[in-house]
Design a protein that fits this description.
By secondary structure, this protein is an alpha/beta fold. 32% of the residues lie in helices and 18% in strands. It is built from 8 helices and 11 strands.
Length: 256
């Protein structure tokens, strides 16, 4: 069985659109839809409780941030496979055509997580199947993106992935938690794959927190310099990372 996990916070209309896109996949595989809510208002929580497409709804009593919400949702999933999607993404109907291809590669251990969307393209990838490529652990051609192999954009993996590599750090800001998890996966040699085209789109009716906080637009004139400097910084984090301490040294956790 595959668990489709959606994280949600105070955007019931976006969740409604996300659910409709999942239903339109017409998946033949046995599946469940799990929604993990991050302490939405009582009004919004009451609204999403009426969505009949949801098989399991778990929620936090107060807003704890994406990483805590993800952990809460992951632990509620019953499936061997987990397809993750935030409420501000829409899964494309074509995803149905490659689901079995993804599962086959996961079962063979050729990849351990397959990303369905990214905000960038890796210059160098290793072909694994007709639709899926492996991201090399390190490549000079991918220098600016080596540390961005993981992202909280939609992906498919297994429950065993988190048993092997651990869950997300809690009580962190979104960027800190996402970066720590990405560096951890690099350090522990996780095998990350990515599809040759995107099977999820951003719901244009919403604006994600990451988009709001993205500093690249503010530095458009110096974008290439900023990206290189960011890459150097994160490669340093990779070298310094300790799986026992699970922390970043040049980032501040701005969680409040």
């Amino acid at each position: 069985m595959i668990s489709i996990l959606i994280t949600h916070y105070n955007r019931p209309e976006a969740l409604r659109n996300c659910l409709e896109a999942i239903i339109n996949l017409n998946l033949s595989l046995e599946h469940e839809i799990v929604v993990s809510d991050d302490g939405s208002t009582s009004k919004n929580l009451s609204k999403i409780k009426t969505y009949k497409e949801i098989d399991k709804l778990v929620f936090l009593k107060e807003n704890k941030g994406l990483t805590t919400n993800l952990n809460n949702g992951l632990k509620a999933c019953s499936g061997k496979y987990i397809l993750y999607c935030q409420e501000d993404f829409l899964l494309r109907p074509e995803l149905k055509l490659i689901i079995n291809e993804c599962i086959d590669l996961l079962d063979l251990g050729k990849v351990e997580m397959i990303r369905l969307k990214a905000n960038y393209k890796f210059p160098y990838l290793i072909k694994m199947s007709s639709s899926i490529y492996k991201i090399p652990r390190f490549s000079f051609r991918n220098f600016n993106l080596n540390t961005f192999q993981y992202s909280d954009n939609p992906f498919i993996t297994t429950r065993g992935f988190y048993e092997k590599y651990g869950y997300y750090l809690e009580n962190t800001s979104g960027p800190y938690g996402e970066t720590e998890f990405a560096i951890r996966l690099l350090n522990l040699r996780a095998i990350i794959g990515i599809t040759n085209k995107w099977y999820a789109t951003v719901n244009r009716e919403t604006t994600s927190v990451m988009q709001i906080n993205n500093p690249v637009k503010k530095r458009k004139k110096w974008k290439s310099v900023w990206r290189f400097a960011r890459a150097v910084r994160q490669h340093i984090e990779w070298l310094l990372y300790s799986k026992s301490k699970r922390r970043l040294y040049t980032y501040t956790n701005k969680y409040k």
